[in-house]
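Predict both folds.
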Amino acid sequence: TAAALMLGGIHEPVAAKEPDTIQQGVERLQSGSVPFSEENGVTVSTREEFMDALQQRKSPITVSSLVTIGQEAETSGRMIPVKIPAGTLIRGTQNGILNCRCPIQLEGDVCFQDIEVTFESSDALGSVPHREIFLAGHSLTFDNVKTFLEGGGGDPGGFGGTEEELLPTVYAGGFTNTQIGDNASLTVRNSNSETMFKAVYMGHEAENDNKVPYRGTATVNLDTRVIVRERVDTSKNSQAEINIAGGVNDYARTKEFYGNENTTLTLSQSTIDGAVVEGVGNIVVADKGCLTSTTDTYGNVTLQRGGCLDVNSLDNVLISGDFTGVSDAQEERGIFVVKQE
């Protein structure tokens, strides 16, 4: 392979704005605009106590045992989401589990911390799963949150469901006929081995269940340990930023990203091996991060401070936009790896 080092002195990276950091969601929640007063906190151990705490807008809510929520349904059988008020911090003790039989929906910026949040709705007995997390145009932070729940995929006849895993899907919009905000954000930090999502759709239409669509601005901050099984999709957003950050020797476990010309994917320090990056208008790899990609077509590419884009596995590569390195010749330059021929 041949490594081509970009020359200094060319223009700045193409990006809508400075990317958010992984910590931004939590910092915003902990700022004065969204107070977390310990005096207003409460510890709950039953569904009734938890729902009462939400109604009274208590925060932080500490879950000390297995609490299962989700009882109300539409006449069609579709489960109605439990709504989490703005400024709510929900955290757990060692035995704290919030088990959801329904979707959840934000009413403002919300943080879950040090807790297990599972969604047990499955396709057992022909049921339609309801494992949605509706951001409703607001900001959600998951800080050391376990979401994995084993499915009933091995059950003969499928009476326990056909799915191997019961994982939530994030939608930036809302449940049918609900009011939503205009600045959706998902931050996942301090992930553990069971921090998992099925998919993340930061932009979407009403689809077949009449969701409230979302096409506004979106930010996704992920650490390297979180797993998104299918995709992080910002292809329908008016503007979006996807930020992946970790240590120099960390390999990100989320690998599929879909966007449009107004999407910026920023990878710093860590490595994504075998990435799928489709339709993303701006790719920034910095601080010794490495993106090894199976995608052969790119818009704007910025490689700086040792950031590496490796397309050595591809026969033909097209960069249709700007190809940018560092602005200061004294900085460590980016690295572009292609096949020798």
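Second protein follows, with its predicted structure tokens after the sequence.
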Amino acid sequence: MKCFNVIAVVMLSIFVLQSFDAKCQQASVVPSKKTVKDYPHTGEPPMPVVKPILDEPLRDVSICRGGDGSYYLTGTIGPNFMTANEGIKVWRSKDLKNWQPLGLVWSIEKDGTWQKQWTEKNGVKRRAVWAPEIHYMKGNYYIAYCITGLGTGLLKSTSGKAEGPYESVNKPDAPLTKSIDASLFQDDDGSVYFLYGSGYIAKMNNEMTGLVTKPVQLTCVPDSDIEHHHPSRPCTSFNHVGFEGVYLFKRNGRYYLSCAERYYERYHCMTAESDHLMGPYGARYVSVPYAGHNVFFQDDHGQWISTMFGNDPDAPVEKRAALVPIVFDQNGHIKPKL
């Protein structure tokens, strides 16, 4: 009977995938031209009042609590976010309200090697650090990042302080992976994993200088509604949590995998959960509306918080660093704290 049930589940999954693939091929012929205004009611959880915490334009906001009890913030700096910037800036705060700029802690031109190369896409030249993400682990500060058109990398503070200076720990000195949006996760046993893109994961060596396993993609229960996927590529991977901006954390023995997705054209944070690091992960859901590429962290009172920057005109903030306190409902799912 167990074998029959397994076979039935497999056959049903194949049928769903084949049916959805057919819809995808048909839908991808004409790119969607819809906007958020075409979806007035999408069922997102309600949001509290959200205001910027920095005046400077910023995307892909990352915050961690450091070993000194201070909070450290970074993100993609502008104004030409998508095509060119200097490198990576960091800010420090004691209270998540007042932020002290620590300046440019890593420069493409001054500190880069392979990162200095300009690439071109659709006739536009570009060289920018995207989505730097700061982490405090193993008694030091690390910044995972990506360079437009080249790939991902990892920086380590040579001073043991968040203001650096930073140096590349990749060995050899080359991109760790292709793709974008790098992140780190440390499990309870001390093992560190490198994540990127739409949910790819690989274990790192103890020195964090390279990957010791082949990257694999963490997947969740397939979402077959095309309106829940990025409009220009809605069907390339419909069992992912989102198409970019991966982040992973663990709470009460449960893994929370998040990514950004164009869900009904809104740049939301989508989350799926599992009792095992490598999955399977359950059905994804909108955890923090408009948060998109974000991270989750705890303050010194134990309150969980999501970062956000707002990628949509309808978002509470737009291209500014902001914070959204979150809670976990009776099923352990994330939702904004009102």
